[in-house]
Amino acid sequence: DFLCVSLLNGFIQLRYNLGDKTVTLQTFQKVRTNGNTWHSLKAGRVGNEGYLDLDGINITQKASPGMNALDTHTDFFVGGVSSLNLVNSMAVENEPTGFTGCIREIAINNRELKLTVTDPKGGANVGDCDGTACGYTVCKNNGTCQVENSGFSCSCPQEWIGRTCEQSIHCSQNRCGSQALCIPQPTSLSYTCVCALGWAGKYCNSKIKFITAKFVGNSYIKYTDPYYGKRDLRYSRISLNFTTNQTEGLIVWMGKGEDEDNDFLAIGLANGTLKVVINLGERISVPLIHSKYSTCCEDRWHFVTVVQNQTCIKVYLDEELILFEDIDPQKKYTALNYGGICYFGGFEIGRKVSIVTTGLFQKEFIGKIKDVVLFQDSKKIQLMKAEGYNIYNGN
Prior knowledge:
By secondary structure, the chain is mainly beta. The chain is built from one helix and 28 strands. The protein has four domains: 2-112, Jelly Rolls, CATH 2.60.120; 131-173, Laminin; 174-208, Ribbon (Laminin), CATH 2.10.25; 214-393, Jelly Rolls, CATH 2.60.120.200. Strand 5 (49-54) and strand 6 form a beta hairpin.
């Protein structure tokens, strides 16, 4: 499998192969190669349907039956490759050559890559395109960069301060307490404090303890499983109690939540009913949705358990078996390699549930969670000892 974006005779070309056939898309217009014009390029695929967008002009290749997952398991290359042997002969039209020009703001699945000296895994013959200490986006929040003998300085917009315009004036004198985040509120010329796990109050200076975690939206808990390395990932299990008055929300996401190749097990609500989605590798299973009765807005606790026995999935709601499905009778992938990471209620501040889950779930969870047990552990997870923000005592 491969996906390649290249420049050919002045046109941008996208080629990808998902295992059965190669698809090729090419822009209608040529790019300007005068060295002074920046171009905006978007390319990719949804299933086996490709799209290519150059400066707002879109081309979409309608899908035909076939494979719909990109299975590469290789390094990601920008601008060239370390060896021409790494380039599939079908990925380019002619003999491959390295790109000459400037590239910035590369985002893969909505996550921007850091094109610095230290962040990539490797590289060669790459220099600073700007040629000055200012570079690109050195000054944040629309600040203007000026080159100086000592390096650079930033001229900041009215509501931002700091060496790189990184701090809001509304948070410059904030009273937010231990590990709290200051969120500027420009319309009210003020700010709010988002409290770290174990703290509460307007300024997050009141220490709290809880057994039941209360999620109020824009909340999350990230738990790292200390026994992950010893787990038999072919047989996973998670159970918990929850209550909510909302019809949508992500309750738990077992997985790294970093890119589409990560395995995961997810439990949440969609249209007021329970929704479970599991990805054991290469493809996402058909979401398992229970529609017998609503699980929201009743102000009552529900007990949910999801059991994975290789590719067989069982879902229990209030101790009743509601779903039982073999998501892959061929048993190509049988282990839930979730990386030892469990998110509850949502993801880190600034990461939208709808984007991280690629639309599987729409919103953060609002409600309460307690009694979380992983696998066949004899003890419940102590959510207090995880990391997170905006969590209250739900007892």
